[in-house]
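The freezer alarm interrupted the setup, so I double-checked each line after restarting. Inputs confirmed:
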Amino acid sequence: MSSRRDPLPKAPTGILGFDEITEGGLPRGRPTLICGGAGCGKTLFAMEFLVRGATQFEEPGVFIAFEESAEELTQNVASLGFDLDELVAHEQLALDFVAIERNELEETGDFDLSGLFIRLGYAIDSIGAKRVVLDTLEAIFAGLPNPVILRAELRRLLRWLKDKGVTAIVTGERGDGQLTRQGLEEYVSDCVITLDHQQREQTWTRRLRVVKYRGSSHGTNDYPFLIDAQGLSVTPITSISLDHPVSTERISSGIARLDSMLGEAGYFRGSSVLVSGTAGTGKSSLAGHFASAACARGERVLYFAFEESPSQIQRNLSAIGLDLAHWADQGLLQFHATRPSFAGLEMHLSLIHRAVEQFAPSVVILDPLNSFISGDNALEVKGMLTRLIDFLKTHQITALFTSLTTGGESLERTDSAISSLIDTWLLLMAVNTGGERNRALSILKSRGMAHSNQTREFLITNDGIELREVYLGPDGVLTGSARAAQEAAEESERLARQQEIERRRRDLERRRAVLDAQITALRQEFEAQEAETIALIDRERERETQRQQDRASMASLRRADPSQ
Amino acid sequence: MNQPDQDDNDAPRSEPGTIDWDGQDLTGDENWTLRLYVAGQTPKSLNAFANLQALCEKHLAGRYRIEVIDLLEQPQLAQGDQILAIPTVVRRLPLPIRKIIGDLSDVERALVGLDLRPSPPEKRD
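Predicted 3D structure, all chains:
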């Protein structure tokens, strides 16, 4: 395989997150050293590698145990849901316990470890194994004399494993000043992984680091990992690239007025939303609205509560008309309530990862974020959030974080560390005016949309959150009763204006009536005169006719000449 | 894992891959059964066999049996006696079972390892 130019072939471990940070798994056909102190999870890591290999990738494996018997091993990993007996019965796994009791062994001359080679070879061949674990190989140094021979044999063994073409894990105990007590790292040159179990701020965190991975790029950070009922899961701290897909789909914030402030449509799907504000400004209520709206669309919501219990949140939100219990019953809403102090940051991150992987939500709510900050770990919190947001974005999950700003701090300060990661940032403020404390909301930023630049008054009513226009008075923003007074003043002014208009309208009516009356009178006068004139003309005409008749009768009487 | 034979405590029978050193009567209390694990006919294993034989002749003449197991032929037998190093001699009888590793070129250590008191009493540890 090395003769070709192909990238290094890799054997996926199937361990959640690990294959991401190593871009595919362990180097195929080569040995990998896993080292760490007692109880750091070496054996479990190695065992999960074999079990997943056998069950998911059809690669049978051999586990050579130097410290625990096959029965003990089987029992220990049963808690992770691994049934070794069944795997052994199906020839997917071979277990061999190599017991070494030093006091039985007297060295009488030259020897080698062919016995181990033969046992290993026999186990590999009997099930056609592709994967091998030697746990903990260093035990041979404690059990057998003559380190010179052992070192030479170790070198030969690792060479032999390579020649066999099996993907091998060799575990080793952490030593002073070097990775392993016996310097195994000298022999395993392809891939070295350290596991660690550290205490910080009274919580213990397991960490994994890829110290070396020849011929491959890999993440170099300390990755936290978790061992629980499903085995190991490693949290990739930062995704290696910034290439997550983006969506143009918009989803409602759950509050119609807020949607219209956000470019008439709401948040972008897959974006990260930060709601920050001082105590009691309604951050959780805003989150509750968002959760409720998502559930109403039939989407799944994962709600991480770090300060309140789920039932308390549900009760509080039901007081403002949000019935979250109903969605929880339908399985659309899932609460995860943990104390921030319950585990280290990395552990929390791992837990969140695992919960998200399992529940596959489209909305994740973290309420509140900054309860993680204790002492001077702000930098670590930022690192954690970066990873979390990256992770959620790559899964196209819309995330809403609330952040409590403590009094006296600039409202925008605490969050400035993560603001660059946030797409939409809503600021909730308490406005103190006229002996009142009122809430106001403004959009500090919202990437990729034309959002309102106006501050709105934010009311929490029995029917949920209501957003109102605020009034800008000579003393600044008017809220609460000041706003109400302003509203009343405007109302009376409006009424007065309306009355004035009404009065004028009536006046006009009256004038029109007067005018109409005058027109009628004039017309009547005219009609009277007209009638009189016509009568006069008629009379005159009659008189003329009469006169001519009279003249004719006169002529007739005088027997006048008709030709005249 | 299967044992090479079920009755090697009292039966001087040959098994595949085992060699009875001689046909002596092995019924007494003092009978020794030694098993030598090797991996092929390497100089090291031939050496070990020769050394073991010489040692037995000197200290256990007439009351021992040596089985040689070649793991290249019977790899499944390595697990039963927890064989790691080659060559290994397992003292199966008398009990308790003891193991020594190496080619037995260091006779003193071999005697100590096998808990064989040399005829002239000497240091044991």
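Quick read of the result. Helices of chain B lie at 43-59, 77-80, 107-114.
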